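From the pipeline queue, job 12 of 40. The input is one protein chain; the requested action is below.

Action: predict structure.
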Amino acid sequence: MTRLEKLRPKLLSLADEKYKIFAQSLIPTNANMMGVRLPELRKIARALARECPPMEAARELKVCEFFEEKMIALMAAAYAPAPLEERLGAVKAALPHIDNWSLCDSFCATLKFSEPDLPKLWKFILPLFGAEGEFACRFAHVAALEFFVSEKHLEKYLRIARNFCNPRFYAMTACAWALASFHAKFPKRVNEFLAQGKMSDARAEKMAIRKILESRITSRQDREFLKSLKTKKPSEKIRRLKN
């Protein structure tokens, strides 16, 4: 019996049927769902991480029957202290088992990397930007907004966004979200980028503009400018930017 199978009775005792119905309405997943809230899952994952190395936690994903078990395994892999290479190995092993946005985003947000780790992390996620899988691609874009919203990575990410070509919805929304995060810090440059209208996927471009417009921190001037782009052709967008 695996560690998570041993934890199943405890998880079932924490299940909330009303929350389960609510969570199922938000999170499409192939796994069964119990209805255990995220703070409880984090407590269990932290305890598990103290006795379970990252790779071992990632291997537990193969036998998980419930969404909550997957979440615990991912969080335990993220919380467990280990050398960088081992943690990245656990991420690589875990990615094929992620089948929804909640697992992807919670896993990415739980992972911690120090400044010296970032060059190797960027090298690790670089091929994932072009992954065919919806959530491997999403993971890369969420990692970009979590760890790489900086002047050093601005132009690198804009090149990636320009060539974005994954047609899956949750990959696309992650690219839009990351562009909105870069816009919050570098609005002028991201406005210039969007005004060019050269993203490979026009849907992703529209989604990014909408995401930025939804942000409360977007200035009135930027908001008016971005609204004007929604109805302009690429050449008109560039003229609008120059004016």
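Job complete. The chain has two domains: 1-112, 117-243.
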